Amino acid sequence: LMVNAARGASAAQITAVIPHYAYARSDKKDASRISLGGRLVADLLVTAGVDRVLTMNLHAPQVHGFFSVPVDHLTALGVIADHYRDLGNHVVVSPDLGNAKQATLLARLLGLPVAAGNKQRLADDKVVISSVVGDVAGKKAIVLDDEIATGGSIIEIVSRLADFGCAEASIACTHGLFAGSAVERLTSATHISEVVSTNTVP
Taking 90 as the threshold, does the pLDDT of residue 126 lie above it? Predict the structure, then answer.
């Protein structure tokens, strides 16, 4: 509505600055007859009159392609890496294989090894991580995810890491949504030492 109003007021160019593109998780048809919300909202923005989109850390690379206008896709990896400089005996861990590429990039920036969980989502708020790929025994973990909503994936991966001999975990994400009882779940988890997030979501 704001874009449409600006277009109606003869704006020469309209840039939508969307630090957290909230519909990015709806990016694939993992069941029949469901809506691709990420694509639909991109179409709505362009129809309203957006000429360019500025956003951060989309849930998956394909969401970038949902837009028919230029997209500046920023990352918070540099800022997150600055927080973890000069650490020894750590490993960067992705809760799932889908985010393993981002975890690998952070691991390269820090000069650390990388590991990933094998995650299966049973429901929106229920996940199971059956195994961890990579060596985490005797190390401290930096668990990297793009966003934390309910905290289910984080609690599950930290629990698995403890099973495989990981001493403690620091959690890092770009989008800290912390929905429902996420804060209580994360603060009561014994193996989590800290949670690091940017302020893309107020």
Answer: no
